[in-house]
Design goal:
The protein is an alpha/beta fold and 435 residues long. It is built from twelve helices and 21 strands. It has helices at residues 2-24, 29-50, 52-60, 70-74, 82-87, 97-100, 120-136, 178-191, 200-213, 234-242, 349-356, 386-404, and strands spanning 102-105, 115-118, 145-148, 160-163, 168-171, 195-198, 222-225, 245-250, 259-260, 268-270, 275-281, 287-294, 305-312, 326-327, 329-331, 338-339, 345-346, 361-368, 373-380, 407-409, 427-429. A nine-stranded mixed sheet has the order 4-5-3-6-7-8-9-10-14, with helices on both faces. The chain has a four-stranded antiparallel sheet with strand order 11-12-13-15, with no helix packed on it.
Length: 435
Amino acid sequence: MFQFHDAFLTIKGIYKYERFLKKSEHFSNDEIKHWQAKWLSDLLIHSYKNIPWYNSVFKIHELDLASKKPLKELQKLPILQKEEVQNNHSSFCISEAYRKSLRFSTSGTMGEPMTSYTSFNQWVFEQGIIWRQWKNAGYNFRDKMAIFRSYAPQSGQALIKKDRIRNWSYFSVYDLSEADIHFYADYLKKWKPKFLRGYPSALNLIAEHAIRNGWKLPSLKAAFSASEVIPVNLRENLHEAFNIELFDHYGQAEITCMFHECEKHNGMHINWEYGLVELLPSSEKDVFKIIATNLHNYSMPLLRYDTGDLAIGFWKKCSCERSSLTIDSIRGRRDDYLIMSDGSLASPINLYTYFANFSGIRKFQLVQEIAGELIIMVEFHGNIFDEKRLELCAKIISDLSSKTNLSIKCPIHPHFLNTIQGKFSAFIQKVKYVG
């Protein structure tokens, strides 16, 4: 059922692109300010009337909802931290959000998953903006796309899943051993996709395999990536393996802002129609905190939300002459590889998704000290007895041992580690990889 609903909203997103987003990337500054002010004004009024958290916070900070300068009013609000949202989750949502919205969970790269709700209209904007990037890269509806993300086959299911409506093929990113990629390569050569899409780490493994083994995909036009920071050699590997360019995309499950890369590949464009972004100074030179406000999410609006990610470089114009400004790149979602017992590499991003959807987990951490093995530290919500803790840890071990082909340990009394910089990381890699 969700697949057909998602397809329906995607079609509406394409319509939104044709009627508005196709033109809006060339709007003047005055037009951009007009639309952002209109959307923000409507959102602030809705938030005051329907979101418990903002009803009280707006009064405390004396927001004037009748103001013709809603951007100035927004600045009265303090920066919103993830912890505040987690601790007061229901206060940020409309009533019956679970029935009237789409539900997502954060990938949990900081080890603290969070559920987000998004309104259907916001999802239409999201699909329209993604469609715009794809169209600018040459994509047309039902072009064959090989996707290396978002597919975790259950026991007995095939490693490759077909979406016949969109003409896409999904490949299991839990299964990226040398033998698995050989199997995928045979399929790809016969199927002849026009586009690749996936986690950067997964795309890099595919490209490196193609280079080592000398296979080509002349049908390919481009590759799309998201959810991880791009490995330094990915663009070079994709060009050498398949003679294609990479188009990167940035967003979060909290649904506050989106950036994308255009055909000039000189930085990341802010999608101004999606959300407002403030770049605030960090402790590092030319590195800025990304503070964002989605303009269309009426189910769970997050105003001036600290995404936890960092922008490299301040706003500048792109040579493509589109209206939206760019930053150089985004930092803060870097994922080291898991190292398998045979020396092959795998991304931990799917494990983040697993824990984001595992009810009752407050915090988790992955620690790899030996190739082919993984220690999982888990902190559960509330006070639970060791017997229940043992049961939950046993489930995690059972689920992930079969999904990852790793030897999993999950101690019932975890000891969380900090990085050498004293920061908490959801994944600590202690194995030195020799590639």
